[in-house]
Amino acid sequence: MSESTRMMLGLVIGIAIMIVLVMKTKVHTFIALLLAALITGLIGGMPVADITNAAGETTVGVMTAIKDGFGNTLKSTGIIIGLGVMMGGILEVSGAAEQLAFTFIRVIGKRKEEWALAITGWVVSIPVFADSAIVIFAPLVKAMSSVTGISVVGLALSLACGLQLTHCLVPPTPGPLTAAGMLGVDVGQMIMIGAGISIPMLIVVVFYCKYIGKKIYQIPNEDGHGYERKEFKKEYIKSMEEVEKLVGEKNLPSFTASILPIIIPIVLIFVKTFWGLFGTGEGVANTIISLVGEPIFALGVGTMAGGIGSANIVLAEEQKEETEAADETSEEPADETDSDSSVMKIGALKGPTAMGMAQLLDDENYEFSLAASPDEIVPMIVQGQVDVAAVPSNLASVLYQKTDKNVSVLAVNTLGVLYLVEN
Helices marked H in 27-171 — which ranges? Predict the structure, then answer.
């Protein structure tokens, strides 16, 4: 068996094992990928570890290849994915993703969400790499599914297909640009031909996405964590009135504040792309554009913009809650004063301390709270649950400090109690 045949056989077996592990077992996807890579390499004839022959030539082992491949993947997309996850969390928590979803639906109309995402992906992926764009738009897809009741599978697939079509067929993305250079085709012609071929493919794929969204019906859970899969029913799809009611009940940020974290990185990357095609390639402007248009930098700026907007929203919500709580607190004492103004609340210790008040126990103008120890009386005084308290005199200084000097000693009385006990 030739080396190429062995490698192809290893690849087929590795992919098959990965699919079985992911779909039929509880093995985590990451572990399944590692096992598939290991099996593919070993069947393909790669040694387990690096081998260096007498001539000094090194044959890379399968473990080294896996580690290098993982490192290269992290180097190219790891930071981008990390920033995208952060941005997604910010957009979700602040409500910006829901605002964007609602605005999209209101502009394009109901039942056209797959078309909107597919066209958006088709346009955006011309200047922006598909891997960056899918990370940027992921929160929007999830929010649209949650708001409309449409399967997140169909929506995400529509976006991904739109992104990949122009990414693979229309320059200035690297693949078609390299193909144009190798074949000696003019870049302008390549753009027109690639766009022309991708449009009918986009139309076909949207109908498929609509079909698969009903076949695999999966929507985000109400708490935002995880997804729920069930059989599709037409009543699951929310009407426009239900969507407007749902969004109207929430305090969402403005559309401008919501879309800025997405628009900023797209514009920055877009500027760098076109500067690379038509710019001079030197000077201060080239340095600045090369920096700000780098996907990592652009996504970082977008994430910061989303974070600042989210922080302002959270602060506004906290201030609103504090104001409402203060209003409620200020109203409560007034109500209590109105209803209980004629009743004096008294706290006292069981035993000799309360005996001197025995004649007041049946008086309707007094409400007594009796405690077994001073420790039970102290919280009543500190929290304002009693108006007057009879406690040991040595506790007065402690209460004076704990209540920030808000209690006063009315009298120090021992003779009456001692006389009562004595007799």
Answer: 29-43, 62-73, 79-94, 96-108, 113-124, 130-148, 152-169
SS3 at position 388 = strand
369, 347 contact by CB (below 8 A): yes
Taking CA 302 as the corner, what is the angle to CA 301 and CA 306, rounded to the nearest 5 degrees? 115
Q: What pTM did the predictor assign? A: 0.50
In terms of Cβ atoms closer than 10 Å to its own Cβ (0-12, 13-18, 19+), residue 219 is buried
188-202, 223-237, 318-332: which has the minimum mean pLDDT?
318-332
Residues 145, 220: Cα–Cα separation, whole Å:
7
Q: What is the pLDDT, as a whole number, of residue 339?
A: 46
Q: What is the DSSP pairing of strand 218-220 with strand 58-59? A: unpaired
CA distance 122 to 103: 20
Give the position of tokens 């003019």.
186
**pLDDT tens digit string along 129-139?**
677 778 777 87
